[in-house]
């Protein structure tokens, strides 16, 4: 508990800082997660961070829950049942969490449809017209027309 | 530094009485930090289970993940408008923002107090300073939470960020006759 807790202080507070302060829960979506996890350079590091965090957090949390319940539940049979249930939930959650992190692959089709539904914002037209006027078409110059 | 030692109370049956008497016992600051540590830990565990399951949608079904996280921005994913986007409901956005703040507060307090507990346990003379360290925990908690409150609550006064959700994938295009 002490070791996992001390490691989690950095991992979990860093995670909260990234998702809630540097970013915002309203801008986090599939594209955000895909950009983080499937990034060719830093994706491995993010996945390693999340994998460590998920394993330690689930073990730490369920071990704490087990300690609380063991204070109230003292019969050996009941303790065995509670312990079994808690460790099963632990294994299940670590399983689906690790599966999600390790098996993630960018869904290009979904991302394409998402980009089509959210085209980049059109920039405001400038007050000064900087476009170069097109040269007059050849046919409008009288001398060249027979 | 005087501690008041109360006389032991007569035992009275009943869960509520036992809980109330337990909370009124005179163990001092350590009792409260223990209680808050426990309650925040259970709260974080509850969120952790939900968070692992919703992140599983990233792999299982990206569209479902986007609809789920749109809930955090105050949109109701099971009520869609004509364009197939979740409708917006402002009180939901406030509720999720304030719960988010509560979650951050829970994690922050649990972390700081956990460091204090580890120091008390692992250093030989740590237990002598547990009261001062709780003062540091509270002070740091308040300072950091004020900063966090600014970053988390200010977006509430700006219009929400809206994503359009892609329509369902259609099958392969119909072949020409």
Poorly predicted ranges of chain A: none
String of helices and strands of chain B: HHHEEHH
Helix-strand topology string of chain A = HHHHH
The helical percent of chain B reads: 55-70%
Helix fraction of chain A by DSSP (H/I, runs of at least 4): 55-70%
The number of E-state strands of chain A comes to: 0
As a whole number of angstroms, the C-alpha radius of gyration of chain B is 24 Å
| Percent in strands of chain A | under 5%
What's the total count of β strands of chain B? 2
What structural class is derived from the secondary structure elements of chain A? Answer: mainly alpha
**Domain module count of chain A:** 1
Give the overall form of chain B: elongated
User: Radius of gyration of chain A in whole Å, from Cα?
Assistant: 28 Å
- Global morphology of chain A: elongated
Counted by DSSP, the helix tally of chain A is 5
Largest interface: pair, residues per side: A-B, 44 and 45 residues
Chain oligomer state: heterodimer
Strand-pairing-aware structural class of chain B: mainly alpha
Give the end-to-end Cα distance of chain A, rounded to a whole number of Å.
94 Å
Topology record:
The complex is a heterodimer of chains A (146) and B (177).
Chain A lengths: L1 H21 L7 H8 L5 H30 L3 H27 L5 H10 L29
Helix pairs in contact in A: 1-3, 3-4
Chain B lengths: L14 H9 L5 H32 L1 H9 L4 E6 L5 E3 L1 H33 L7 H24 L24
Antiparallel strand pairs in B: 1-2
Helix pairs in contact in B: 2-3, 2-4, 4-5
Q: How would you summarize this macromolecular structure in one to three sentences?
A:
The complex is a heterodimer of chains A (146) and B (177). Helices cover 66% and strands 0% of the residues of chain A. Chain A has helices at 2-22, 30-37, 43-72, 76-102, 108-117.
């Amino acid at each position: 508990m002490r070791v996992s807790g001390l490691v989690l202080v950095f991992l979990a507070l860093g995670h909260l800082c990234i998702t809630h302060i540097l970013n915002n829960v309203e801008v986090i979506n599939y594209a955000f997660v895909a950009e983080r996890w499937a990034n060719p350079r830093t994706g491995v590091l993010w996945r390693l961070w999340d994998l460590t965090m998920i394993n330690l957090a689930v073990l730490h949390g369920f071990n704490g829950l087990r300690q609380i319940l063991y204070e109230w539940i003292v019969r050996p049979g009941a303790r065995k049942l509670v312990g079994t249930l808690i460790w099963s939930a632990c294994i299940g959650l670590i399983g689906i969490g690790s599966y999600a992190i390790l098996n993630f692959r960018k869904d290009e089709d979904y991302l394409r449809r998402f980009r089509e539904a959210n085209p980049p914002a059109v920039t405001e037209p400038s007050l000064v017209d900087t476009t170069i006027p097109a040269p007059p078409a050849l046919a409008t110059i009288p001398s060249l027309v027979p | 530094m005087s501690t008041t030692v109360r006389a032991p109370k007569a035992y009275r049956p009943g869960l509520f009485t036992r809980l109330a008497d337990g909370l009124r016992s005179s163990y001092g600051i350590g009792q409260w930090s223990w209680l808050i540590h426990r309650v925040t830990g259970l709260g974080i565990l509850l969120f952790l289970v939900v968070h692992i399951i919703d992140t599983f949608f990233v792999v299982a079904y990206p569209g479902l993940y986007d609809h789920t996280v749109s809930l955090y921005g105050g949109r109701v994913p099971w009520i869609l408008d004509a364009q197939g986007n979740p409708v917006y409901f402002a009180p939901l956005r406030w509720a999720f923002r304030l719960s988010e703040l509560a979650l951050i507060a829970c994690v922050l307090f649990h972390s700081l107090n956990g460091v204090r507990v580890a120091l008390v346990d692992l250093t030989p003379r740590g237990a002598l300073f547990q009261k001062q360290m709780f003062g540091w925990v509270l002070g740091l908690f308040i300072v950091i939470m004020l900063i966090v409150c600014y970053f988390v609550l200010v977006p509430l006064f700006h219009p929400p960020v809206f994503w359009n959700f892609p329509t369902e994938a259609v099958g392969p295009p119909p072949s020409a006759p």
